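dude i think i finally got it to work??
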Amino acid sequence: MADISVQINQLKNCSSELHNYSNTLLSIQARILNVSNTLMLQSSSQVQIKRQLRDLSKNVGTVSTKMRKMGTSLNSAATAYWKAEDKLLQNKYTGNRIAKTVGGAAGAVIGSSGGALGTYVGTKIGKEVGEIAWNALYKQISSKEPIDWPSEWKKTALKVGSKAGLLGGSAAGIYQLLVDGIMGGSAKDVYKGGKTIFDSITGAVKAVNSTKGTKATWGEAILGLNKPLSKFAGAGNGWTGAKTAFSETLKGKFDVKAEGLGWALTVVGSGFDNAEEFGSEWYKNPRFWAETVGESAVSIAEGALVSSAVAAGLVAVGWVGAPAIAVGAITVGVTWGLDLLCKKVTGQGVAETVSDFVIDSAIGIWDKTTEVGKAIGDSVGKTAKAVSNGVSSLWNGAKRMFSFA
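look at this
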């Protein structure tokens, strides 16, 4: 099969030229019509000339239209090839264009204090910086394994479903427990499905028995229509309400009495994930325990910060009547977006990346400390030996000096 090579920029240039030629022909058509309309002819031959001029004008217009369509088709073909290549290269060109636009805008703002010249120079420099930054980032992204999109969408859909009250949470948990767990042969999913069901039940109970002004009916709790942010109704909109909602939500997320069992279950779930990674003798590996605790801590902190930020944002815009399913779905979406961005750059989610960084840094510090300690010990030993040898030499010399005594 022969290879196909397409010069996309040349196609676009040809498309632009065809549009220019089409405009030129339109201008010629208008001039021909103008000549035809200004002719004051009465004889049959003169009328025939006028008719021929109009026919010529019509033909020129037809050619102009065809030429414009050719240009449009060429541009569409070039765009299709461009999009296909951009998709194969994981949006390299789109990302570069966005980075240059953002960089140029930032540079324009920074350089605007220098007037028109400063804005121009700032825009040019900003575009260059944006392009350089994107190329470095793209090199990092393209070296990672491609993201399993079907799996990502499925996990996200289950997480959103788990926020839909007792009914949605139970349905999502049962699906994960039966389909992915028992039928799929995954002990990890059996556990996670059970945890989802447990969370949906305890969440509904909390919503109904809340003592902080958000008490819901069982009907609302079952469908996820209870309003968890209504307790901030008097906090006001804007920055004031956002601060209150953020601090109060964050405080609740770190309430040991209320969240302690949930944290423990998170640790166990993280352990299931890491057990698969470390193999049959996972329990013998110290790294397993470090990663399990570290990833759980980051996941808990990430969830608390994201949910607090979402609550703050919704209160700030005055949507204190948002149902729990909406608040939960937004929180899941934001967390998913952060993890997806982190996966694109590092190949891992936020929890794994942060946890590995902390553990690797600690190991590095320990190794360096060990090396330094060993070097110090060696130095002390060598120094002590040198001093000892020196003292012995002095003593022997002194004895020889006074050997007559």
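The first helix runs from residue 8 to 38.
im so relieved honestly
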